[in-house]
Amino acid sequence: MPAATLPLTQLFRFGLAVTLVIISHLATTTLDYPVGSDINDKWEHFTAFLVLAFLTDFAFPNTAWGWKKLLPLLGYGLAIEVFQYFLPHRLFSLWDLGADSLGLICYPLLLPMLKQIPLLAPRWHTGRLLPSKNDIRDPP
For the segment 2-17, what is each residue's pLDDT rounded down to a tens digit? Predict the structure, then answer.
């Protein structure tokens, strides 16, 4: 991987790791705060997995979004639900897993918009997150 791409890729990888730790903690801790409606809970699942999809996609920019990125995230969502089944203060919920899946499935719908963001656009043209020195040419 070229040195120019490393800082941004590492930033996304760090963000992915931190997000996974936070989600894992929130999924297993006791709820000391009042939970909003069930719709809010599903919206949180959807949003969390949409963010995880984005972070995973950009943490590993040399691989296009697809099953190799989607399935591990779906497995993570399933693992959380199975783990919650064994916690006295949590429940296994197929609705939660469905909201997780919907977030992962909707991520590709954002790709056309993400391709318009200058900081992220080089990934689709070069397979890297930042242009290398060879990509930047002086005008003739």
Answer: 444 567 889 999 999 9
